[in-house]
Amino acid sequence: MATVSFPRKASTPLATVSLPLGQGSNVWLLEMHNVPDNRLLPEFIKQALLPALDYIELEWHRAGEKSGNKAGALVLTGERKVGKFFSNGLQLDCLLEYPTFFRDYYYVLLSRLLTFPLHTIAAINGHCYAGGLCVALACDWRVCRNDRTWMSMNEALFGAQIPAGMAAVLSARLPPLVLRKVLLTAHKYTASEALSEGIVDEVVQEQGGEATIKRALDKAVELKALAETGVLRAMKETLYAPALAQLAQDEPVKIGGPQLDNERRFKALVAAEGMAKL
């Protein structure tokens, strides 16, 4: 199968899907190409990532109908030429143009990954921040590059509120003490730290992003037979029911919300102090 580009017929693809292990392997590789850092922009999600996931699922169904091969797995990775970023997350300054960004774009992507009918492996071949880390955590497994990889939910450093849907995905994946550290300290994890705290499942010791993608593909081969019964989506819907319920909520974009709340709280405290002195 030739590489398929998304958006379809685009001269410069934002994402590509291929079968790097060959036709009939049913191991699909979805590469993000929203250079330079795979920011999860609304149209990137709508025009590339979601259609690519639909395409992979359709091809899986077709393979089952045609040859009875119902095995399958998906590897998601960042662009490979530079290999610097898996994903640098959201871009806050564009969100005001998309007031339903979470409901209609980003949360759809997270829900789609959480409930994908195949095992999904994030091949973290570069830096992975904020919304990008949340996408990796929405995959079933995470294989991480040893070198040139930092991971962080860094919203506390630039004053952005963590939306409830993202927090729900993090809560579904991370132990409470790790979640506290991830969200409240914006700790910048090395690959080895991420492994020790359960954020990733494996760290590939061989340097370079290609070794990480190769290991993720090998893991996909190990897991692909588990899709044959067709039960994975249903199991995931049960396992992640609380997170999926939160992701289904309409959560408007809020820019500067915490700061405005602090200002209101400050004024209320000043007024209360004045009343106490009367």
SSE order and pairing:
Layout: E1 4-6, E2 15-18, E3 27-32, H1 42-67, E4 73-77, E5 85-87, H2 101-114, E6 119-124, E7 127-129, H3 131-138, E8 141-145, E9 151-152, H4 155-158, H5 164-173, H6 176-185, H7 191-196, E10 202-204, H8 209-223, H9 232-239, H10 241-247, H11 257-276
Parallel strand pairs: 3-4, 4-6, 5-7, 6-8, 7-9, 8-10
Antiparallel strand pairs: 1-2, 2-3
Helix pairs in contact: 1-2, 3-5, 5-10
Protein name: ClpP/crotonase
InterPro entries: ClpP/crotonase-like_dom_sf, Enoyl-CoA_hydra/iso
Pfam families: ECH_1
Describe this protein with a few key phrases.
globular, three-stranded parallel sheet, 10 strands, seven-stranded mixed sheet, single chain, 46% helix, 2-enoyl-CoA Hydratase, Chain A, domain 1, 11 helices, 278 residues
Give an overview of the whole structure.
The chain has 278 residues and is α/β, with parallel strands linked by helices. The chain has a single domain (4-276), classed as 2-enoyl-CoA Hydratase, Chain A, domain 1 (Alpha-Beta Complex), CATH 3.90.226. 46% of the residues lie in helices and 14% in strands. It is built from eleven helices and ten strands. The protein has a seven-stranded mixed beta sheet. A hairpin with an 8-residue loop joins β1 (4-6) and β2 (15-18). α1 packs parallel to α2, α3 (131-138) packs across α5 and α5 packs antiparallel against α10. The radius of gyration is 20 Å and the shape is globular.
